[in-house]
Every structure is written in structure tokens, then in C-alpha cells.
Amino acid sequence: MKRLSDLTTGLVGQPMLEILNIANALAATGRTIYRFEVGDSDFDAYPHVIEATKQALDQGNTKYVASNGIEPLRQAIREYTAGKLGFTPELNQIVTMPANSIIDFVIRCTANPGDEIITLDPYFPTYEAVASYTGIRQVTVPLREGFRLDAGDLEARITPKTRLIIINTPGNPTGAVMSEAEIRDVAAVAAKHDIYLLSDEIYAENIYEGRHFSPSFADQCRERTIILSGFSKGHSMSGWRLGYAIGPAELIAKMGLMFNTVYTCLPPFIQHAGIAALATERRLMDERRSYYRSLRDLMVNLLNDIPGVTCAMPAGAIYAFPDISGTGMNSKDFARFVLERAGVALTPGAFFGKRGEGHVRLCYLRNEETIAAACEGMKKALGGNKRAVKFA
Amino acid sequence: MKRLSDLTTGLVGQPMLEILNIANALAATGRTIYRFEVGDSDFDAYPHVIEATKQALDQGNTKYVASNGIEPLRQAIREYTAGKLGFTPELNQIVTMPANSIIDFVIRCTANPGDEIITLDPYFPTYEAVASYTGIRQVTVPLREGFRLDAGDLEARITPKTRLIIINTPGNPTGAVMSEAEIRDVAAVAAKHDIYLLSDEIYAENIYEGRHFSPSFADQCRERTIILSGFSKGHSMSGWRLGYAIGPAELIAKMGLMFNTVYTCLPPFIQHAGIAALATERRLMDERRSYYRSLRDLMVNLLNDIPGVTCAMPAGAIYAFPDISGTGMNSKDFARFVLERAGVALTPGAFFGKRGEGHVRLCYLRNEETIAAACEGMKKALGGNKRAVKFA
């Protein structure tokens, strides 16, 4: 007899659907909707990346290639990693696939149903979504004041069933950049208890103050550390769906076999775009980062002008994560309120874990006019209600 | 404690690695290797498809889009399906993803570990690879003389644990096109026992004699039939990694949630390529098919000239699947023999199931010179050994 399998009951997908549906319905009436809910840039990929993609298409890079990724791209990743993190991974430590898939593949290749993985809270929702459908238990470590991690909080949650710790620096949604001391503590805990450590570094090129530090310092990804990286955020290439993992060779081999089984390979012309992206002049990257920083500053300053809203300055990533508890609303009510009253679409903090409640997330990679108009609208909508606005 | 998960022991990936390694080692010595092992065309995608991909890149179709696929592509699939199969699926019956992923997603969304799926034998290896790593049991139905299916053989293998039947017409590796009567029998068995039916129709545009008939006639994919289709074979677009499933809305919704969880979405510029591909003039498709037919005829005729080899004329797909049992070798020994003695890379039939043994698979979408030279080489290598060549 046919029936859907057990795992389908755990498939949650995007929690944003309700907000998206209201936003789309309002937009369909002709109303201007300011969209800050998607973690993507309004700015295009670099022209040389688009040209490289087109050139690869013209040159016939349009057939099946190796599942782990074409060698020129993996060589380019080796060199980029040497420059960025100070070690050169072996070719067999690298596999290319969409960065989001790396989360699914690492979790499924290291944990059985019933095993546990530890994430920080707030966390990127895909960690939860994968745990949910695989029957693997997500254990969360609430971050402390300023979204800092206390290593004791982490270690207290390790059990004999813990297989994987996931960190994310700079963090989505908080924008917090983990300090070298925090990273060293996490690496020490992972080593002491012999647990895999997935370091989600997708925002490593999006740091405005401080510097990126990776737990790969401890083992060069040979023992337990897996780096997740990709091109969506640092190189404005979300639509290319290109990322890569660097990790212990035996785990990377399994992930490659899984990618082969499920996906065959990534489009080769997309991999050529990755080679071009890694060769982007530092000057261009710095220019774009400076511009992003100015957008961050603008958004955070304007958010702090809104009654009931306070926003710390995030050191990295592409999000403002203001505290909206002063409005008296919870994060979902606030999201619906500003969408209906000010046409501003943003993400309730509750989607990022219990510790995300009381906050909302806005991706500020929009133009200045959009940011200014949206913040002005929210200020007006909340203006007469400095405290305890109740969503009707 | 860290350890790889149980499912990693079931990851088998490509069984071709040994042959590929020998082929690559020989090629590295400067020797000409004639490659027939990959199920891909030597011919490029249509120029208008490449242009559409480049235009979509130039027009900024490079950001996140809906996980189920952009609506213009799904609308184009509706129209194409109406023309090809005589029914118009609803939008919520369609999800786009790489065709190979559809196999993984359909199996995982319909069967639990310990459940059973039924495939024909010979079969496309991904069916086995997915069953292997998920702990779902693959039950095979050996095809009879001429690779025909007897419905009684199928029904005899149904148990209370059977969740899914997978058919593949035209078939890989056999090239057999299932008759309308065979398809009606399969659909009746699936309906009688209330089982999902995955119809892998990736080669539906690669038929040279007879016509394509789909089990979707019975339910318009509303009840149990899932069509797997894509652009790799019919439109020579293997490197785009674009396919689609049409099925019952509740199953398609789950597959979309799973795609959202694991991959987020497909690149939008690749989806625009799909729209262009579906608009390909019938004349161009017919021209290419005629050319493919001539390559098939050439290869089959030349194979039949080789001592110990007999090859039936396949009605569809892109493979010759000769019987090599007359050489006295099994299929793996034959594959190594012709690779080392004649520089011909092909796929042992044993990789496609027990019923594939005694055969080898060659993809004939190569130019005439390559086909002629390879067959000449195999003929010479086998010439002095009309019977019982033993691989040293």
C-alpha cells in the first residue's frame, strides 16, 4: 500500500511562508513592499564572474564532470584557503556542492537517527530543518549577552550521543563574529570529546570589524573540523548554488559518494564561475565590503530611531538583528505588524530559535533609499505606540 | 565520540571507478581511448539554449527563486506535457530539480528503511545506489527475452512492504521501449495493489521506432504515477543538471520541501535554459534524432561484426547493449579486455543487475569515426579468439 514515508512528517522547509504569502498578496494589490527577509544582496555578481560563466558555456563546459568538483576549482580552493586560513588542504579534503547541501550531507554522514547534534541558539534554520526530517536530535546552546558563547554552556550539553557541533561565524542571524578565544574553546571541547565540528563560514568575507578565525587552525580539517564555505554571500552569487566543504578525507569521500548518488555533479560552467570568483581582485572585494558596511551603519542607526527598537552594531554577516521587545510585541506579531502597516517584510527572530525571540532579522544589502523609506515607515507605524503596541 | 553514520556504509556511488581509473591511466600515457562509458552526447546543446542561459545571466536571473521551480518553467512544462502526453498537470503537481535527485527524493519520500521498492532488471544503477544507502530493499524483476516485462513476474514480487515500482522506458541500459500493453499491465498492477509508480521517462525524446507511452494515462499523475523527466538526454543538456517530476500534489509538496531543505533552489538562469529547451523547434529535434538513429545503426552493425558479440537493435535511448557471452568472458573481464587491448572504455552489464551480465553498454552518441575506429579495434582484439578468450 502506498503512503508517504515517515521522514516526510519532519519536512518543515521554509518557515517564512506565512509572511511571504501576506507580502505577495499586498504586493499584488500594487502596494510597495520593502523586502528585507531574504538573505541575499540586491547587488549583482561581479561582471567578470558573469563573463566567466558565459565563456564556459561557449567553450562547451556543459557535460558531466567529476562529482567532487573539477580539479581546477578544487586547486583554486586550495590556494584561496592557504591565503585566507594559512593552511593548504589536500585535494581529497575538498568537495564542491551547494553550501546548503553541505549541512544536510555532513549531518547525515556523521549522525544516525536518535543521535544528537549541538547548535548555537540563535541558529540558521537549515540546521533545524535537517535534524527535523532525519530524526536526529538538535540540542541548542543559548548564546549569552551580546550573542557570545560560553564554552562551559557548550560542554554541559555534550552526551554520549553527541556526534557533531555546528558553529557559524560570522553568525546568521546575529552578525556576531566569534572571537579567537571562543573558537579555541570550541575546538578544545570538540577535541576533548572527540566530536566532529562543522564550522559554517559562509559569511567569512562579510566581516567589518575584527577578523575571521576558523577552528581549522587546530587540525587543518584533517581530524574533525569541516569548513562550510561558498560563493552566495561573499561573492554575491546566491543563484549559482555553489559552495564547498573542506574536511577529513574519509568524510569528504563519503559526501562525494552521496553527491554522486543524488546529484551526479555540479554544472561545470558554474564551477568555472567559482574559479573566476576566487580570483576576484582584493580591491573589488574591499570596495564592496565598504559599501556593505555603510549600509549596515545606515540601517542600524535608523532602526535605533524607532520607538521600542534597539539594535547593536553587528561585526559581520549581512543582517541587522534588532531587539524589538520594547514594542511589547513578540517577533511574529511585530513582523506582521510592520508588514501590514509599513509594507516592510522581515524575518521573526523566533524562526532562529528560542533565543532569537524578541528580535527580528533584516538583510541590509539593499539600496539606501529602500532602507531609509522602510525605517521611516516603521518609525511612523510604531511612533504613537512607544510601548506595548498590541497587534490587532 | 565521532564516527561516520550507518548510512555511509551503504554509499556505493559510481561502480565505474575501476574502469575509469584504468582508462585515465592509459590516456595519461598518450594512448587514444575511445570513451563510450558515459551516458552523454558528444554533441552540444542547441545554440538557442546556450544563448538563453547567457541572456538570463545578463538579465540578472541570478538570485534565489522558489524551491519548486520558477513559474514560467513550470507553465512551460505543463504545455509540453499536454502536447507530449495528452494531459495538463496542475502547477502544484510539478517540481523541478536534477532528474537524478528525483530518484533519491521519490524513494525517500515513499519508503521507510526496511520497506521494498521494485525495479526491473537490468536497471539504472542509481535506483540500487539510493536503496543501498537508505536501507530500503530493492526487489528486482528479471526482464524476459528481448528485455520484455511480464506483468505476472512483477505482481509475484509484490509484498505488504512494497511501496514503489520503478519502470524506465525507453530503458537504460537496454534501449527497450515498453509497449502500450506492457505499460497498461504495470499501471493495473500498481493500481490493484495501491502502490506508487515512478516512471523514469528521461529518454522519452530518444525513440527511433515505435512511440512513447506513459503510465500517466491512467491517473494524470494525480493518484500514484510520478513522471521523471529532464533535459540531459533529449536536449543534450547533461551539464545543466535540470529535470522535473510530475506527480500527486501531496508527494510533490514533500519533495519540494525536501529540495528547499537540502538545496534551497535551482539556479534561475538554468531554469530559463529549460524554458528555451522546451520551445525547441520540432524540426531541430527530429534532425538530431535522425542523426542519433544513424549512429545507433552504425554501432549496432559494426558490433555484430565482432566475433563473439551479438547486438539487437534497440528501439530507444542512447545505448547499444550487446550480448558478449559468445566471447567466453564475463562483462567485467570483457570491459577490461577491450580497454587494455583496444583502448575502448565501456560499461560492464553486471553494473545494471544480474540480468545485465553477459552484456556491455556503449553510448553511441559519438562521431562516426570514433565508433568505426573503436569497433575495428575491438574486432582485431577479439579476432583471433572467436570463443573463450580468457582475460589475463
Automatic annotation (TrEMBL), chains A, B:
<dbReference type="InterPro" id="IPR050596">
    <property type="entry name" value="AspAT/PAT-like"/>
</dbReference>
<keyword id="KW-0808">Transferase</keyword>
<dbReference type="InterPro" id="IPR015421">
    <property type="entry name" value="PyrdxlP-dep_Trfase_major"/>
</dbReference>
<feature type="domain" description="Aminotransferase class I/classII large">
    <location>
        <begin position="35"/>
        <end position="376"/>
    </location>
</feature>
<comment type="similarity">
    <text>Belongs to the class-I pyridoxal-phosphate-dependent aminotransferase family.</text>
</comment>
<dbReference type="Pfam" id="PF00155">
    <property type="entry name" value="Aminotran_1_2"/>
</dbReference>
<dbReference type="InterPro" id="IPR004839">
    <property type="entry name" value="Aminotransferase_I/II_large"/>
</dbReference>
<dbReference type="InterPro" id="IPR015422">
    <property type="entry name" value="PyrdxlP-dep_Trfase_small"/>
</dbReference>
<keyword id="KW-0663">Pyridoxal phosphate</keyword>
<protein>
    <recommendedName>
        <fullName>Aminotransferase</fullName>
        <ecNumber>2.6.1.-</ecNumber>
    </recommendedName>
</protein>
<dbReference type="GO" id="GO:0008483">
    <property type="term" value="F:transaminase activity"/>
</dbReference>
<dbReference type="InterPro" id="IPR015424">
    <property type="entry name" value="PyrdxlP-dep_Trfase"/>
</dbReference>
<keyword id="KW-0032">Aminotransferase</keyword>
<dbReference type="InterPro" id="IPR004838">
    <property type="entry name" value="NHTrfase_class1_PyrdxlP-BS"/>
</dbReference>
